[in-house]
Amino acid sequence: PPSSLSPYRLATAAPPRAPGKADAPPGWTVIGAGIGGTSAAYFLRQTFGKDVQIDVFEKGTVGGRLATINVEGKDYEAGGSIIHPLNLHMKHFVKELGM
């Protein structure tokens, strides 16, 4: 069966290296800044530290379908999909971020 391409799995995989560049910090490109892309960038930073180059490309807004709107001073969720409380990956991520 094909292996999962979760953001965590991608972040913990060995990055490709150019010949003769063994000392250079790895560089990564993330396509999309929705929940998956921002998660991937977060785990890459956690794995490789502050010196890693991470370029995130997004054609729309950061957050993808996750959004809030402000109505009369109160914030409301207005995103496109829910995050189910039984989703173990999201439970880990929420705990990791202290939310």
UniProtKB/TrEMBL annotation:
<feature type="region of interest" description="Disordered">
    <location>
        <begin position="1"/>
        <end position="25"/>
    </location>
</feature>
<dbReference type="InterPro" id="IPR036188">
    <property type="entry name" value="FAD/NAD-bd_sf"/>
</dbReference>
<dbReference type="InterPro" id="IPR017046">
    <property type="entry name" value="Prenylcysteine_Oxase1"/>
</dbReference>
<dbReference type="Pfam" id="PF13450">
    <property type="entry name" value="NAD_binding_8"/>
</dbReference>
<dbReference type="GO" id="GO:0030327">
    <property type="term" value="P:prenylated protein catabolic process"/>
</dbReference>
<protein>
    <submittedName>
        <fullName>Uncharacterized protein</fullName>
    </submittedName>
</protein>
<dbReference type="GO" id="GO:0001735">
    <property type="term" value="F:prenylcysteine oxidase activity"/>
</dbReference>
